[in-house]
Design a protein that fits this description.
Layout lengths: L2 E2 L10 H6 L3 H10 L3 H10 L9 H18 L2 E13 L1 E8 L16 H15 L4 E7 L3 E8 L2 H9 L12 H13 L5 E8 L10 H10 L3 E7 L11 H10 L4 E4 L2 H14 L4 E11 L2 H29 L1
Parallel strand pairs: 3-4, 3-6, 6-7, 7-8
Antiparallel strand pairs: 1-2, 2-9, 4-5
Helix pairs in contact: 3-11, 4-11, 5-6, 5-10, 7-8
C-alpha cells in the first residue's frame, strides 16, 4: 500500500492561493514573485483561442502541476521485502605496545621479534571476531588511535601488518593507552565493551596514571584483558605484573604472561572463547521510492505545453508567410 514518508509537505497545498490573495501591495509582490517560466507559458497559451479553453482549465492545470510537485516532495513509497540485518553487540579495542623493546627477538626458539609474534596472534584473533567491531590503539611514549572501530577485518589486518616498533618513542604510557581506548568506547552503543592491553613494560610516560584509567574503566563497565610479553618486573624493567593482574581482576577480565608465540596465540584464543560471538538481529522493511513517477508526469505535461506552443508559433509563421 502506498504511503508518504513526509506527509507534512501537503500542508503547503494552499500556499499559491494564499499568496495570490494577500491584501494590498504585498499580495501583488508575492504574486509576481511566485511566477515561474512554465506557468507564464501556460497563461499566455491559455489566452489563445482554442487552447485550454475555457479559462478554468488553466487553473486546473496549474493546480494539478503544483499537486504533482507536492506528491513527489512527500516521497510516496511502497514496502518491499522484510530484510534481516545483524549488528555487532561487542566492541573491542586492541591496545598494543610498540615501544622499541618490542623489537627484541626472544619469542620462541626461532628468535621471532615480540612485535611480529603479536601481529600474527592479533591477526588470528581478528579473524575469529567476524561479528564484532574492533579498533587498534598503538602506544609507547605517545598514544595514537591507529584504527577506529570497524568490522572490516581485512583492513584491520592490513593496517596491523604495517606496524613498526619505536614509531611513537621508546617509553611506555600504559595509562594513556587505556584512557584513549576508553575514550573511543565511551560513545559506543554495544552491549559489551572490551579492551585487550598488551605490553612488555611498565608505565613510565604519559599524562594519565594507570590507576586513574582503571577506575574510569570500572565506571564504564569495560572489561580489560591484559597480556604481558617477556619477563616479569625486576628492578623497574620487564612487565608490571601487579598492575596488569589488578586491571584484569577488577574488570572481570584475565591476565596472561607469555614469552613465546604459542603462549601468545593461546592467550588470544582464550580471550576469544571468554567473549563468545554474539549478534543482534534487526528487522527492517525496505521501502521502494515512487517520487520519480509524479515528477515524470510533471515533466511530460510541461514538455507537452512547450511543444504545443512551439507548434502553434510555427503554424502561425507559416500562415503569415
Amino acid at each position: 500500500m502506498i504511503h508518504f514518508a513526509w506527509p507534512f509537505v501537503f500542508f503547503l497545498l494552499p500556499v499559491p492561493f494564499i499568496l495570490q490573495h494577500l491584501p494590498g501591495q504585498l499580495g501583488r509582490e508575492n504574486s509576481a514573485a511566485i511566477k515561474v517560466p512554465f506557468f507564464a507559458e501556460i497563461k499566455t497559451l491559455s489566452r489563445k483561442k482554442g487552447f485550454f479553453a475555457p479559462a478554468g482549465r488553466q487553473t486546473t492545470l496549474l493546480w494539478g502541476l503544483w499537486l504533482l510537485l507536492l506528491i513527489a516532495a512527500a516521497r510516496p513509497q511502497v514496502p518491499e521485502n522484510l530484510q534481516n540485518y545483524t549488528v555487532p553487540v561487542r566492541d573491542i579495542m586492541l591496545a598494543v605496545d610498540i615501544s622499541r623493546s618490542m623489537i627484541q627477538q626472544d619469542m620462541g626458539q626461532n628468535g621471532k621479534s615480540r612485535l611480529d609474534a603479536v601481529k600474527e596472534a592479533a591477526a588470528a584473533f581478528i579473524a575469529r571476531r567476524q561479528n564484532d567491531r574492533i579498533g587498534i590503539v598503538l602506544f609507547s611514549e605517545q598514544t595514537n588511535l591507529y584504527m577506529p572501530l570497524t568490522v572490516d577485518s581485512h583492513a584491520l589486518n592490513k593496517m596491523l601488518s604495517g606496524v613498526q616498533p619505536g614509531l611513537l618513542g621508546s617509553l611506555t604510557a600504559i595509562g594513556d593507552a587505556l584512557g584513549l581506548s576508553l575514550k573511543y568506547l565511551e560513545d559506543s552503543k554495544a552491549q559489551h565493551k572490551v579492551i585487550v592491553l598488551l605490553t612488555d613494560g611498565v608505565n613510565n610516560a604519559g599524562n594519565l596514571a594507570p590507576q586513574d584509567a582503571l577506575r574510569a574503566a570500572e565506571q564504564q563497565s569495560v572489561r580489560i584483558y591484559t597480556i604481558g610479553v617477556g619477563s616479569a618486573n625486576k628492578r623497574g624493567t620487564g612487565v608490571d605484573v601487579d598492575f596488569l593482574n589488578q586491571a584484569a581482576e577488577r574488570t572481570n577480565g584475565k591476565f596472561f604472561m607469555v614469552n613465546d608465540p604459542l603462549a601468545l596465540d593461546q592467550a588470544y584464543l582464550e580471550i576469544s572463547q571468554n567473549e563468545p560471538l554474539s549478534q543482534a538481529s534487526v528487522y527492517l522493511i525496505k521501502q521502494k521510492e515512487l517520487y520519480f513517477w509524479p515528477l515524470l508526469l510533471f515533466a511530460l505535461i510541461i514538455s507537452g505545453v512547450v511543444f504545443k506552443r512551439a507548434a502553434e508559433r510555427l503554424f502561425f509563421r507559416q500562415r503569415s508567410g
